[in-house]
């Protein structure tokens, strides 16, 4: 009886430790400095302590500026790295026992542009295309011109969108990833105003069976 109880307690402890390791805050604390050089191990631990103490989670980062963790959930973290940049992570299930970490880094200068990467929970980088097979392309964001639109003006404005910039956002509430078209923020004002009526709303991807799939494109 004692042996059975001991075995049960050991298994329960291992299971508890595994669940802890799969929490966003634990992964964040254990993240190597090389993945996010702006934040030291002390910075990352302080973020968690401050938020769990209901305090503003602001620290002095490795470059001497201010960084703030603005959201902490069991599977999601959002950090305002600098006034022009942000960092998000989300734990996503691959199966019943395995999760991956999705990281979105965004810089706005002034138009925002994001990079999406994937890692194991012990921070080994994974092949992004295995989990996000197809990123949006320019045509996904721009609607076709209606018959009543001046085609030449439309084509001219579209030609000036010569670079695809987009901001990615992970959801804290569900398993979605939204891409917002930001190229118009770097275009000339006149061309941007002409193109804006044709820009679609954010393109949303939903995590399904271990990868992100495009779920909607709205006008």
Assess the beta-strand content as a share of residues: 25-35%
| Largest sheet, strands/sense/barrel | 6 strands, antiparallel
Helix content: 25-40%
Order of strands across the main sheet: 1-2-3-4-5-6
- Low-pLDDT residue intervals, each spanning 5 or more residues: 4-21
Count of helical regions: 6
Shape: globular
How many angstroms separate the termini?
65 Å
Q: Report the structural category.
A: alpha+beta
What is the H-and-E element order? Answer: HHHEEEEEEHHEEHEE
Number of domains: 1
The overall pLDDT average reads: 88
Topology:
Layout: H1 2-21, H2 24-29, H3 41-52, E1 57-60, E2 66-73, E3 76-82, E4 85-93, E5 99-108, E6 112-120, H4 138-141, H5 151-159, E7 166-170, E8 176-181, H6 189-195, E9 203-208, E10 211-216
Antiparallel strand pairs: 1-2, 2-3, 3-4, 4-5, 5-6, 7-8, 8-9, 9-10
Helix pairs in contact: 5-6
Structure description:
By secondary structure, this protein is α+β, with helices and mostly antiparallel strands. The chain has one domain. The protein is built from 6 helices and 10 strands, in the order H-H-H-E-E-E-E-E-E-H-H-E-E-H-E-E. The chain has helices spanning 2-21, 24-29, 41-52, 138-141, 151-159, 189-195, and strands at residues 57-60, 66-73, 76-82, 85-93, 99-108, 112-120, 166-170, 176-181, 203-208, 211-216. A hairpin with a 5-residue loop joins strand 4 and strand 5. Helix 5 crosses helix 6. It is globular and about 55 Å long. The model is unreliable at 4-21 (pLDDT under 50).
């Amino acid at each position: 009886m004692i042996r059975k109880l001991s075995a049960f307690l050991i298994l329960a402890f291992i299971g508890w430790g595994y669940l802890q390791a799969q929490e966003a805050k634990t992964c964040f604390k254990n993240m190597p400095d090389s993945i996010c050089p702006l934040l030291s191990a002390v910075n990352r631990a302080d973020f968690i302590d401050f938020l769990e103490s209901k305090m503003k989670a602001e620290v002095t980062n490795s470059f001497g500026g201010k960084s703030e963790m603005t959201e902490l959930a069991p599977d999601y973290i959002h950090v305002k790295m600098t006034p022009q940049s942000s960092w998000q992570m989300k734990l996503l299930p691959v199966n019943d026992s395995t999760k991956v970490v999705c990281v979105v880094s965004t810089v706005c200068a002034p138009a925002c542009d994001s990079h999406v990467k994937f890692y194991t929970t012990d921070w080994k980088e994974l092949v992004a295309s295995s989990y996000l097979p197809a990123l949006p392309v320019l045509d996904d964001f721009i609607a076709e011109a209606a018959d009543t639109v001046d085609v030449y003006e439309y084509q001219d404005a579209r030609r000036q969108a010569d670079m695809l910039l987009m901001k990615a956002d992970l959801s804290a509430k569900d398993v979605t990833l939204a891409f917002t078209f930001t190229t118009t923020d770097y275009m000339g004002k006149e061309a941007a105003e002409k193109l804006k009526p044709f820009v679609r709303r954010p393109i949303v991807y939903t995590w399904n069976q271990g990868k992100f799939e495009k779920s909607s494109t709205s006008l």
